[in-house]
């Protein structure tokens, strides 16, 4: 069983930007617009609990602002220490101008 979670409007995340959304009160999801392609990752770093929307986006990577690990925006892989685990990535759907993720029932998978 899967569930669909409505996160935010497509127009809230223009190309080259990112925005935090909440799948529930305790489940942040980072939505990133990479050249018009919307991607969704766990909202907190895989190293320590730190929200990734405070970090920096480049064309290919996201840098966590706390200890400066970079993550690959294609795979979620950690590119630099101290982070080792990849960011979980969630399948995205766009419907009626909204960004949704489709994930298994239960808590969102988060690597930490
Ligand atoms: S919390 Fe992100 S690199 Fe340490």
What does this structure look like?
The chain has 112 residues and is mostly beta strands. The strands form 3 sheets. Strands 2-3-4-8 form a 4-stranded antiparallel sheet, with no helix packed on it. Strands 1-10-9 form a 3-stranded antiparallel sheet, with no helix packed on it. The protein is built from no helices and 10 strands. 0% of the residues lie in helices and 45% in strands. The structure holds FE2/S2 (inorganic) cluster. The site of FE2/S2 (inorganic) cluster (FES) has 10 residues, from loops.
Throw out a few tags for this protein:
three-stranded antiparallel sheet; 112 residues; single chain; four-stranded antiparallel sheet; binds FE2/S2 (inorganic) cluster; Rieske Iron-sulfur Protein
Please, what is the average pLDDT? 97
- Helix and strand sequence: EEEEEEEEEE
What ranges have pLDDT less than 50 throughout 5 or more consecutive residues? Answer: none
Total helical elements? 0
Question: How many strand elements?
Answer: 10
Bound molecules: FE2/S2 (inorganic) cluster
Detail the topology: elements first, then pairings.
Layout: E1 2-9, E2 18-24, E3 27-34, E4 37-42, E5 56-57, E6 61-63, E7 70-72, E8 89-90, E9 92-95, E10 98-104
The structure holds FE2/S2 (inorganic) cluster (FES).
FE2/S2 (inorganic) cluster binds at residues 45, 47-48, 50, 64, 66-67, 69, 82-83.
